[in-house]
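Progress against Task 2.4 (sequence-to-structure conversion) is shown through the following example record, which the project officer requested during the mid-term review.
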Amino acid sequence: MNHFWENHFVQTAGYYSVVILCMVVFLTVFEMVTKYKNWEEIKNGNISVAMATGGKILGIANIFRYSILDHDSLFMMIRWGVYGFILLLIGYFIFEFLTPKFKIDVEIENDNRAVGFISMMISIGLSFVIGASIS
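Structure tokens generated for the chain above:
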């Protein structure tokens, strides 16, 4: 049975499945902390929400990329991926806190593309820092 779990195709399918599941859970958490409904806004054509959500998706995937590369068990990969997500979530709250002149969520909901873009870049940028530190 060990040969089955050591097969690269099986490992890839396992990592892929777990990351997809984590991605759904993590995006649900982001949906709960934002004041707008991500998927409803995207459906309505809100580019700012699409950019911010896309940055979160890429950020989460990038964190798991580093986690997969540097940890030899599925359990450790999940652990570090969850930890990285928590750090990414904290970064979201810090971004909101550091912009007292306006509310990030309100600006993104109003399709302020500059704020949506910077939100996307923060998520992606932090994911590289988090990923490098967990590997």
